[in-house]
Amino acid sequence: VFLRTALRLRSRAALPTPPLAQTARQMPQRPDNMRVPHPVNWTRRVVNYAAGAFLLATCLAHFPGLTAPPYPHYDFLKSMVPPWIPLPSSFHVLWTGAAEAMIGLTMITTHSCESAQWGFFLIVLFTPAHVHHYKTDLPLPDGTIASFSLHVFRWIMQLVFLAVFAYLGWFSKDKPERARRRSNRKDQ
């Protein structure tokens, strides 16, 4: 045991030691190809994929040829657009479907905070349609009238989606494009 300890101490003494004046700030920066990537927040990534997949699934109801005839969601969505909103209701259904598709794709492929922020504002834009549906008691696609509990469930789900998009857009820690901008500023 004594001999092993002596050999270990002797090998440590042979290593060169940096001068004390050399601090971490004076150390050279790593080249760009050797940088350590930022840690990934897997919770944020999973929620991001789920929210993007949800938007891609719901965008299908906004286009007339993509849903089967027993589920006439396109006509139902056209009836949900309040009459005081200018331009035809079909235009609004189509552009919101295209926006849902674009935001969903960018959330899945880029994980950007900006796409989650756009998703947040898109959900806020749907609020007049939900209020109009509640006030006028429009029939659902299957012909039944929505109960009060269904409207409450819809409002709760809208608040949940707003919270998810707010978390992804403003409050999560894994923000790749902002982290890159910050690291580039520190190097200059």
Descriptive overview:
- The protein is mainly alpha-helical and 188 residues long.
- The protein has helices spanning 2-13, 42-59, 73-80, 89-110, 113-125, 127-136, 148-171, 176-187.
- It is built from eight helices and no strands.
Describe the structure concisely.
63% of the residues lie in helices and 0% in strands. It is an all-alpha fold.
Helix-strand pattern: HHHHHHHH
Model regions low in confidence, pLDDT < 50 over at least 5 residues: none
CA radius of gyration is 27 Å
Shape: elongated
- SS-based class: mainly alpha
The fraction of residues in strands falls at under 5%
The percent range for helix content is 55-70%
The total count of helices amounts to: 8
- Distance N to C terminus: 51 Å
Total E-strand runs: 0
Major sheet attributes? none
* Overall pLDDT score: 76
Describe the secondary structure blueprint for this structure.
Elements: H1 2-13, H2 42-59, H3 73-80, H4 89-110, H5 113-125, H6 127-136, H7 148-171, H8 176-187
Helix pairs in contact: 2-4, 2-7, 3-4, 4-5, 5-7
Which structural traits does this protein have?
188 residues, mainly alpha, elongated
